[in-house]
Structures
1.
Amino acid sequence: MFRTKIIQPNPEGEQMLRDAMRNIVQPSRRAFLQRTLTLGGMTLLTGCTPNSERSIEAALTQISRWNDRVQGMLFDPTRLAPIYPDSMITRPFPFNAYYGEDEVRQINGDDWRLELSGLIADRAPWRLEQLRQLPQETQVTRHICVEGWSAIGKWGGVPFASFLRRIGADLSAKYIGFLCADDYYTSIDMASALHPQTLMALTYDDRELPPRYGFPMKLRIPTKLGYKNPKHVHAIFVTNTYLGGYWEDRGYNWFGGS
Ligand SMILES: Nc1nc2c(c(=O)[nH]1)N[C@H]1C(S)=C(S)[C@@H](COP(=O)(O)O)O[C@H]1N2
Ligand SMILES: [Mo]
């Protein structure tokens, strides 16, 4: 139920808002909302006073979607993420996933195929060897995880924009989705997919991508937060339908710019 008229002090509502905040897993987002969001403020942003836990969640989601649109509008497709000298690479580079390092998926590179579907002219699957034969680039960039750490690493691989052109992807489509060997999934906007630093990474630190960092292929997107960099990718699809992602469906902001 929504009240739209006068905003009255609502201690129960304030408590529910605080509870909903605690459920927001992204610390930066939580801190931002805690600093800026009151029930009255939420009413101004969403046009109604949410007064149940569910409607607060819904209102927060609405704010996050609005945030996606703003980030999408502000995103400058030519602006490059900072690059660093090799001497600044973080060693050892951290591992992270929704499970522990002992559960890292062991994938056989000879059997692996990259499946393509959706708005793509040539949907033939790719073998790892074929990807290795495409022109490669290497870059040293900073990976920022919302859990509160960042690290500088060196990834090499195929610029994603050139791959998308090569397979005849519809570059006017809105989204690219990724499925991973470990049930992880995410999706990104086309502008970020075409950004010159977005790589289909096949190497880490000039060697074959190790299993823990996403063998045989991960998307390295230095303009996005860590959770928007899917490892162990085995399927890519191009679509106009919103897809969300593993963490995005659990409350992380979808655009996830860094
Ligand atoms: N397949 C897959 N990709 C994933 C994740 C995951 O759990 N599974 N976690 C994401 C998160 S939250 C982070 S911070 C980075 C960690 O990458 P790293 O292990 O190379 O540091 O991977 C991202 N991509
Ligand atoms: Mo992360």
2.
Amino acid sequence: MINRRKVIQSLAALPFAGSLLGTNSLAAQSKTAAVVSSLRRDFFKELGLRTFINAAGTYTSMTGSLMPKEVIEAISYGADEYVNLDDLQDKVGERIAELLECEYATVSSGCFGAMSIGMAGILTGKDPEKVKQLPNTEGMKNEVIIQESHTIGYAQALTNVGAKVVKVKTAKQLEKAITDKTCMLWFLNAHTDQGEIKWEEFIALGKKYNIPTFIDCAADVPPVENLFRFTKMGFDLVAFSGGKGLRGPQSAGLLLGKREYIEAARMHTPPRGETIGRGMKVNKEEVLGMLAALELYLQKDHDQEWKMWESQIQLISDSATSVAGVESEIHVPKYANHVPSLRIRWDEKKVKISPNEVRKQLREGHPSIQTVGDSKSVGMTTWMMVPGQERIVAKRIKEILSSAV
Ligand SMILES: *Cc1c(COP(=O)(O)O)cnc(C)c1O
């Protein structure tokens, strides 16, 4: 009721609205509707939440990425009709597989969800009794081998469904660790550099022992080529986040690869209920949103977007380094979040403020700006910003740094 009253209050504030509210004619009503719909309800403000400029990147806590209007249109399209959920996933899976030139695909609940259902499918195959049994893996092969340097909290997606993780450092150790319980080899693309075993050797080991290989590529678009590269290279399953570089729904993701494994993964997903994956539901709106986001991403002019990011980062960098004593470094992470990124440092004898304090002032200022960093530097990217916001960020960082000189 409060909200309706608010709308009426704001309508009453409009010069011509009083007369509309007083009449009952159809024409007047439709005019009222037009006025109401043009007054966009400000939910975040109503809830007392501050929005912010995202100069940090694709963080779940900051709600990932913003969806383009084509994605939002796909989501609202989906909201107006009923459709059979399995049929929808079948068709969208085929479409995505065609677009990404891989054997099969499905829309999952994020990359984490893709890892869990992919793992569950490998544990059980298509045996309905085994599907019901998870996370109890009695009578199943349940060991997953990963490189020690690929250890990451997200591997919980694998153990959650019942798998046991076995860690190795070298290819030799990996071969030794293979037992009659080994069911999968898991690779974390973000840590490719840290691991001794690289992609091709990892896949070759999987093939040699007839064990499926899975690669987590959650934050590995851009580059767009990665959407094709790892299935073609020979990984049996490849997972991406939907709400990072792809700018789809944050709670969606992609599982790509071998049909037999993806069909087994689907056995664990809704509408089926007696499964470990029931809580990892992807609704029809998100399935369509994910498809639309992927199509849009594939059509995008990636070179042009890259140039835009570079010039945005340069603008902020120039602005920050115009303050005496401030230095910056533009870098591109090789794996994961592969976008132009900025690190700003300064001599605290000349600029008398700590990086944490700068970040706090950016966050608490108007508008609020979220960044990353540590005790030595402030870090930024522009890829999750709305174009134009880089000017605000450039101005604010200079203001804060120069006021500490
Ligand atoms: C973000 C991330 C995940 C989780 O992805 P969601 O899409 O949020 O479920 C898994 N692995 C890595 C390496 C990530 O960066």
3.
Amino acid sequence: MNYNIKIEKTTNPKVKPDDSKLSFGKTFTDHMFVMDYNPEKGWHDPRIVPYGPLSLDPSTCVLHYGQGIFEGLKAYYTAKGDIALFRPRKNIERMNNSCERMCIPKLDEDFIVEAIKTLVRLEKDWVPKAPGTSLYIRPFIIATDPFLGVHPSHTYKFLIILAPSGAYYPGGINPVKIYVEDKYVRAAQGGTGYAKTMANYAISLKAQEEAEKKGYVQVLWLDGIKRKYVEEVGAMNVFFKVNGEVITPALNGTILPGITRDSVIAMLKHMNIPVSERLITIDELVHAAEEGTMEEAFGTGTAAVISPIGELNYKDKIYTINNGSIGPISQKLYDSLTGIQYRKIEDPFGWVVPVE
Ligand SMILES: *Cc1c(COP(=O)(O)O)cnc(C)c1O
């Protein structure tokens, strides 16, 4: 593969939005990274071009059968005045696992990390500087064969787009209300739960919509067979602190292996706080909430980092957690993880990767 990335700069740069007015995923930078795949050349022609629409035949594979995957990570403007990524290699390893599940040809992990760095370096003036802001990085792959037929595509496009994003918690951290979903399911053993593939999100929308109508921001998914075991929350993994121990569902093929989840487990071990990955039943959680041993609950993901859960609704009964406010471990994890990401504190794990 030709590792030389061709760069075509825009002749029409956009006006950058004010750091304090950024939201999430609505504004994109001036350039994007693109690379193609075909069976003869493999992944080829890596290039950075002006950001703009794609031209696709209406029969294009991904538009009909959803053969596509994505990733999400961030670049941070740090307290040291540089730009850094957080464990980017992990995202590309996970992307290759998603490729494997979805019959998409794998990527060269070192090269993709280089491609991300090259694009972010070119767009460095787009990395917002206000507290809590970041540049969201969205790599994705779509199947591009113009062909109606349920069969893996022979051709693909890999792209990276960048979105400057506002602080997730502009007014301080607010715990969220979560609806425990016992009708719809997200994933089952043997399915695609562990892959960041497009279809997983399409099938989650209905439950999300119904939960929102009832005043909840996300759903907590239960296992696809018995609706008994806890899995994850929307696009976040989930943790509970019960009786002094932090617990999270073990990775069993139906749960997305979050990089924030992995980082939180490592940090808890580093802090000598007991943590275990295991099967967790919803009954056990409800019981703990009733008897007062449910101390904290929170979701983890790249977007929010730590999202405390203040209330669970299960079968229309309401369980309040820590009086609906953020608990001390959740706060400490948030401060430490964002402290490392923004290089405000020492990174004992070697997770931060400077771009320059
Ligand atoms: C992306 C995602 C997560 C969180 O993963 P991070 O790597 O921590 O951002 C959790 N669950 C689902 C379903 C996801 O799509």
4.
Amino acid sequence: MSKQLSKSLEWVLVNLDMMMNKFIIENIDLQKIIMPNINNDNYDISVLRIDKVHAQISGNKWFKLKYNLLEAKRLNHTKLLTFGGAFSNHIYAVAAAGKEFGFETIGIIRGEEHMPINPTLHFAKECGMKLFYLDRTTYKNRNEKYFQEEIKIKFDNPFIIPEGGTNQLALMGVEEIINFIKDDFDFICTACGTGGTISGLISSLKGEKNILGFPALKGGAFLRDVIESLVMERTNQYYNNWELITDYHFGGYARIDLDLVNFVENFQSMNNLKLDYIYTSKMFYGINKLLGNEHFQKCSKLILLHTGGLQGNAGMEYYLTKLKTKNIHER
Ligand SMILES: *Cc1c(COP(=O)(O)O)cnc(C)c1O
């Protein structure tokens, strides 16, 4: 590479980095909260508001995307391609990031196209993302090498970001989250989907403190191996200061019941903080239950990561109304 070119490339990277950091420095803070039905004098609970980093590239998705975007720029890609479900926060974030930082974006959506288009995909389209729908069987091949090669040809060499944004570059970004915590703490807790976020927390803490993950999907125990190998690849270390709490999935991904809805409404009335129904509310519910069962020693300091995802609530409205009016527990 010529010196000239590498200079201008450096300029692009420094500027993208600066643009991203501007958002971070201005917005993230720790917010003290209280929980329903426990003695709040016994614990010190704060929420790390990474959801506030950007209105659309919210929460953990920002940090997971950061080094992916820088790498895409470094390799001179103009196009990002990624995968996700129809309500995916990741799809939403990539569409917004493309618009904000100057990439074309392509979203490969799991399942058939539904009309009318839901709020998540509507937003993605508005940002300029091109959407393609893949039947669920074919979608399963998304991480296969042959499949990715086909995609590269079909879409003219996009920078491919995996579903949920989880890869080693995502861990690098998530590792920076810990820098925003100036206070001492005992536990840091996050909701889990693909396991990228908890993996980055584990790799940044290097065996210190305790990390709890709350899978938002049913049968989340499979994530243990996924997380272990993501962390191993990143750090070459085995850490055991983390645990998955798999009991609070509420029947599966994006499933909710009245008990959860009541908790969220109660919690929100006590704190100036909104939760999303797919991820954070399930974790907060789980933490509340663990506190009630005296799972944590008295005086424990807990930090709960607000990973964002509020955009998804618009898509959940329909089920919420159904739950409340007909008292249906399953959807
Ligand atoms: C994507 C997402 C998660 C899950 O993050 P992973 O890194 O996939 O485990 C958690 N919370 C919210 C709000 C999310 O959007």
